[in-house]
């Protein structure tokens, strides 16, 4: 699997994906208006992903003070996103990327071994998964901060601090 790595200073890849209500969201619609925190996560309603989404949602008003919206992307479908959002009262915008088209453009896909033992595969198969990653995009559409392989707990506050430092 070819891995794309994007770095700070590059133009953020443009995309359009459906949200939890099946409405299209185009990242270009934020140009000149809002900074964007774009975070990729493996699955709806799992412990780490729930913690991350809740922490970002809890800081929604703080992000808004800095003209910033928070968007989460996973390969789950729109219905799963709606259930996840409603179950936890999430305020972050959740986008569905079932074919991983956008995930690949941002370089967050990786192969991981299937099975319970690290380094072992089940029947020689590897599973494709999303590496928890976050991208801060400024109002001009430039990547200002890129983090691959983040930890969910405390991450939202860490990103808020990055947003506060944008000039």
Number of helices: 5
CATH classification, class level:
Alpha Beta
Runs in which pLDDT lies below 50 for 5 or more consecutive residues are: none
Task: Tell me the structural class.
Answer: alpha/beta
State the CATH architecture. 3-Layer(aba) Sandwich
Number of DSSP E strands: 9
Silhouette: globular
Order of helices and strands: EEEHHEHEHEEEEH
The overall average pLDDT, rounded, is: 91
Q: State the distance separating the first and last CA atoms.
A: 37 Å
What would your notes on this structure say?
This protein is of the alpha/beta class and 167 residues long. The chain has a single domain, classed as 3-Layer(aba) Sandwich (Glutaredoxin), CATH 3.40.30. Helices cover 26% and strands 26% of the residues. It is built from 5 helices and 9 strands; from the N terminus they run E-E-E-H-H-E-H-E-H-E-E-E-E-H. The chain has a 5-stranded mixed beta sheet.
Outline:
With 167 residues, the chain is of the alpha/beta class. It is built from 5 helices and 9 strands; from the N terminus they run E-E-E-H-H-E-H-E-H-E-E-E-E-H.
Q: Layout of helices and strands, plus pairs?
A:
Elements: E1 16-18, E2 24-26, E3 35-40, H1 47-58, H2 60-65, E4 68-74, H3 78-88, E5 93-96, H4 101-105, E6 109-113, E7 126-130, E8 133-137, E9 143-148, H5 155-164
Parallel strand pairs: 3-4, 4-5
Antiparallel strand pairs: 1-2, 3-8, 6-7, 8-9
């Amino acid at each position: 699997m070819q891995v794309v790595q994007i770095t700070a200073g590059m133009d953020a890849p443009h995309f359009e994906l459906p949200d939890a209500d099946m409405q299209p969201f185009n990242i270009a619609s934020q140009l000149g208006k809002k900074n964007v925190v774009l975070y990729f996560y493996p699955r709806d309603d799992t412990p780490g992903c729930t913690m991350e989404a809740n922490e970002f949602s809890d800081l929604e008003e703080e992000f808004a003070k800095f003209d910033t919206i928070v968007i989460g992307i996973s390969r789950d479908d729109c219905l799963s996103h709606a259930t996840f959002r409603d179950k936890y009262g999430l305020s972050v915008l959740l986008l569905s990327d079932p074919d991983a088209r956008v995930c690949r453009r941002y370089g967050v896909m990786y192969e991981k071994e299937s099975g319970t033992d690290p380094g072992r595969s089940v029947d020689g198969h590897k599973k494709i998964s999303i590496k928890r990653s976050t991208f801060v995009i400024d109002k001009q559409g430039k990547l200002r901060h890129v983090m691959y392989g983040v930890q969910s707990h405390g991450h939202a506050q860490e990103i808020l601090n990055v947003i506060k430092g944008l000039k």
